[in-house]
């Protein structure tokens, strides 16, 4: 485990309630969980400054310095650790348990810090701006009971996922997950499209989808001006599925390699 010692330089500080210059009362050390460095967990020992308000009429009495660039008040994870964890979930498909294992803390500790951040990101509608190519596909979340999460279960098995497939100025596809909603049906997708509003629907020019009639119906109902196309993954999957067992002289099309002489036919 790596340990980082942190403290701010001495200097005057104002009372957060009345604004008067406070009296220094030394320092108090707290331990924070930081983003790992390589495979090693990291801890930050922050020697926070303590103060007492000199105004006897002020209700604040005493307070400790805060720096939201380091960590939120009463948080156990640093801002950097939370940002790292969100990035792990986005780019590496990491689970909360996997993140907790790398940080050396419990599942509950990680989720308590990540949940409000993820809820805030999910409520940010700005991620839907500029989406001109929209993809959709089903996602099987688990293989157990559909018992609600609030009752100790894992919730719905099937989800519908929407992805931004818009190309940037250099021609590269963004490939950003925009949303996940419960269910795999025309209604699940159509309701999501309707909730995005007319401005979002008007900007979508191309809509890719899996070979599922329900999603096509939702597009016909909500994105009738967009060009609907089968996504590349399912085109290739269907193509090679149709070619299974097909052989040409001297070549096996199933694997695309030369066939030994004694197997040619």
From TrEMBL:
Protein name listed in UniProt: ISL3 family transposase
InterPro entries, per database record: Sig_transdc_resp-reg_C-effctor, Transpos_ISL3, Transposase_DDE, Transposase_HTH, Transposase_Znf, WH-like_DNA-bd_sf
GO molecular function, one term: DNA binding
Domain Transposase IS204/IS1001/IS1096/IS1165 DDE, chain residue ranges per copy: 154-246
PANTHER family in the record: TRANSPOSASE FOR INSERTION SEQUENCE ELEMENT IS1557
Domain of life: Bacteria
Annotated ranges, domain Transposase IS204/IS1001/IS1096/IS1165 zinc-finger: 12-54
Listed GO biological process terms: regulation of DNA-templated transcription
Domain (Transposase IS204/IS1001/IS1096/IS1165 helix-turn-helix) ranges: 71-112
